[in-house]
Amino acid sequence: MSHIKCRAADSNLSGYAPDSFTPGKRTLGNFLAAALQPVGQVLYVYGGGWNYEDSGGDEASASIGLADTWRTFFEEQDASYSYQDYRTEGSNRYHALGLDCSGYVGWAVYNTMCDQGGRPSCVVRASEMAYRYAEHGWGTFCGGGEISCGDISCRDGQTFCGDISCRDGQTFYGDISCRDGQTFYGDISDGDTSCEDKKMPSFCENRKMFPGNCEAADFQPGDIFSMDGHVWICMGACRDKSLVIAHATPSPSRLGCPGGGVQLSAVGADDRCEALRLADDYMRTHCPAWYCRYKAVRRDIERYTTPGGAHGGHFRWHSDARGLPDPDGLAGLEAGEILRRLRKPNRLNSQISALKAPARFPKYSADRFSFLSCHKLPGCTPPIS
Fold first, then answer.
1. Where are the domains of the chain?
2. 35 by DSSP, 3-state: which?
3. Which of these ranges, 92-101, 181-190, 235-244, has the smallest mean pLDDT?
4. Which of 156, 223, 278, 291 is the most exposed, fewest CB within 10 Å of its CB?
5. Is 268 helix (H, G, I), strand (E, B) or coil?
6. pLDDT band at 143 (very low <50, low <70, confident <90, very high)
7. CB burial class (10 A; 0-12, 13-18, 19+) of residue 73?
8. In the sheet where 139-143 sits, what is the strand order?
9. Is residue 108 within 8 Å of residue 129, measured between CB atoms?
10. Regarding predicted confidence, which is higher, 295 or 217?
11. For the chain, how big is the Rg over CA atoms in Å?
């Protein structure tokens, strides 16, 4: 594996770094600040954050700060970048150039839980990341598959939607196993969450199980959601029940190319939602070079709040020393206030070129596009000096 030199994020390129971020500081606020470090500065690369063999996290995902290769690759691309040009079959040849969704979340979690590099990576498959973090003991998990809350299954393939009750008000009757092999006996009524010998899985902890999808009211800042083929971090909910999320996704550029990367987006009912306004304002203000290439995007709320597979679902950090305490009281705040608290005045190099031709990475091709000035892109504001 080639050595990847990492450095702490700074504010002199395409984005900025919140002052509050401290590697290894285990608080909810610090996790949110860590999640903002790569925003607007790292491109989406399929398999990014995973090793060459695609068997686990790479060196950069278990390092403190942003990898130089991520920042360099971002600077040397433009709005005609397509992640598909860097996708290879059978291996992750270009994994060191950027991040995919699970690579990004794993990096943010690692930089919150660890204060030095070289420890086991926090990168796991996107569709089961929420489950695995709960299994590790960091928080609670709520799932929507046929098997939820560890190895507790519902008779006849039903899904949990309460403590011990099935969807549609049905009741469990025997044949319900706990994770450690203990078994429920007799008729199980609502509210009875105890196994014989009191051995419920520790990461179930009185949590409701989603019967399908969940709503904005079910989310708090810092929650992680695993869906079919994707994972994202909740940065906060809005009054209109839309969500501001942080994730790595191949959103289309202003030239229509599938590129994207680590960004704030909205999860809401339509483009009038408050979360889209907040995400757009954040990316425009703090990540102008990014904003010249990409606009903020909205994702469908039903799709993005529906767990996928047996291990898909919702993860919430324990609020004590087992997970991430919240001394700043962020859990009860709306998304706009959280982003305001995490901001700092940004100092950016003037005249950052968002569409400059690359000097390296020859596989990149943009001969079919004209290199426009950043100022001429629709909806784009010039970089702030």
1. 8-134+214-342
2. helix
3. 181-190
4. 156
5. strand
6. confident
7. buried
8. 139-143, 313-317, 224-227, 230-237, 243-249, 261-268, 298-300
9. no
10. 295
11. 21
